[in-house]
Amino acid sequence: MGEAVLFDLDDTLVDLQYARRYGLRAVQEILPALKPVPLEELELVHDEQLRANYWRMMEGSLSDEEAGCEHMRGICRHYGLETDAAVDAADRYHRALQENSRLVPGVEALLESLRGRMKVGVVTNGRSQHQRDKLEYLDLLPLDALAISEEIGATKPDPKIFQYAYAQLGVRTVTMIGDSWENDILGATGYGMDAVWLNRYRRTCPDPSLAIEINGFEPVENILRILESSS
Length: 231
Hints:
Rossmann fold
């Protein structure tokens, strides 16, 4: 029987994509030339900027505020726009992101149902203060285990970050739930944990033998059944 569950944070517990879309719509208001750009396309361009600056943020050579501005400058350059409004766009994006923060549907009920049944933890890549602010704002604290990449000095899928969380839990049977196949599923199974892949957008599963696939957290009873059957 399952004794503990570890969750990824962004787009597993926290509906980051939902908030990001509001943020990017706000950017389109600041930069009207972007209004004709489909939101899905703008998301992809924004993703490219996030990846381009990720390691500079993790190394501390780029603050969160500087990174936000650089992301917007990158979007402007991609579409051949002047970068003068990048600071205003970054500020509006950040405010919209905060204003529209929410949990993925079903998470609140699932966590309530897990209370007293299993230990619960979070394993997440990102800046320490940024991730802790999300956890506090959405009332996800306290946790039985918390592993944040900046604090550990290792990012998923590195086994070190899973080892750190596992040691905090103090149990034998742990299941990891996450939306990233590479970071969450390959990382957790590589360390020896069971894994559940949250596939909300119905992507093709790379290897059904590695993880149980779910498309959401509702109905909660189904998720509990999966977790309780972990070996």
